[in-house]
Amino acid sequence: MDSVEPLDDADRATRMRVLAFFEAGPAILARHPHPVHATASAFVFDAEYRQVLLCFHKKGRFWVQPGGHLEPADATVIDGALREAREETGVEPPAGTAPTIVDVDAHRLSSRFGHCTEHLDIGVAFTADPATALRANDEVEGVRWWPVDALPGDAATGLDARIAKILERLRSR
Fold first, then answer.
1. Rounded Cα gap, residues 128 and 167, in angstroms
2. Residue 6 burial (CB count, 10 A)
3. Which residues pair with residue 56 across a beta bridge?
4. What's 155's DSSP letter?
5. In this structure, are residues 71 and 79 in contact, taking their beta carbons and an 8 Å threshold?
6. What CA–CA distance (Å, rounded) separates 84 from 66?
7. Cis bond leading into 33, ω under 30°?
8. Residue pair 44/90 in contact by the 8 Å Cβ criterion
9. Which of 39-48, 111-120, 141-150 has the lowest mean pLDDT?
10. CA distance 49 to 124
11. In angstroms, rounded to a whole number, what is the distance separating the alpha carbons of residues 27 and 16?
12. What is the pLDDT confidence band of residue 116, given thresholds at 50, 70 and 90?
């Protein structure tokens, strides 16, 4: 997560909070009875960063990047994000590419998510070919590429700002 330079004071505060949570080690994987959960997301873009791959989340009822809870079998946060992308969309990074951590985020959840009230999320980015066959699993109703400057109206709250920050980081590398 050291590669994610905070863009402002709010980013800095979120990063510090998430890092402190993740320092607890394996204990962060426990979901019950804890209301705050550790998650990993995959921000999948086309090679020109003009499109982003989103899925329609059944429980949340919104379009969002693939992602979910870290599992004990995930050796790293990147592994967790790649597993989630594969499970929810069928997409994997091309051979020879190195997905990278690009975002640290904390977001509140609606009552639709039960006892879980917040996700502390690490975002990982990679590119993929939009012609790749997509496959939704049982957690999502659909998977689709969207222009980064024309996200769906029913996207998750704050997704547009989060993607904008990620693109700023990716384009400055």
1. 15
2. 14
3. 63, 142
4. B
5. no
6. 6
7. yes
8. no
9. 111-120
10. 14
11. 18
12. low
Q: Which amino acid is at 29?
A: L
User: In terms of Cα–Cα distance, which of 2, 37, 19, 49 is closest to 164?
Assistant: 49
Tokens 């951590």 sit at which residue? 101
The pLDDT of residue 104 is 86
Chain segment 123-166, per-residue pLDDT in tens: 999 999 999 999 999 889 999 999 999 999 999 999 999 999 99
Q: How far apart are CA 105 and CA 81, in angstroms?
A: 14
Alpha helices in the chain (DSSP H): 9-22, 77-89, 159-171
Q: State how far the Cα of 49 lies from the Cα of 164, in Å rounded to an integer.
A: 11
Q: Is the dihedral of CA 154, 60, 81, 37 positive or negative?
A: positive
Are the CB atoms for 68 and 169 separated by under 8 Å? no
Domains and CATH numbers, the chain: 9-171 (3.90.79.10)
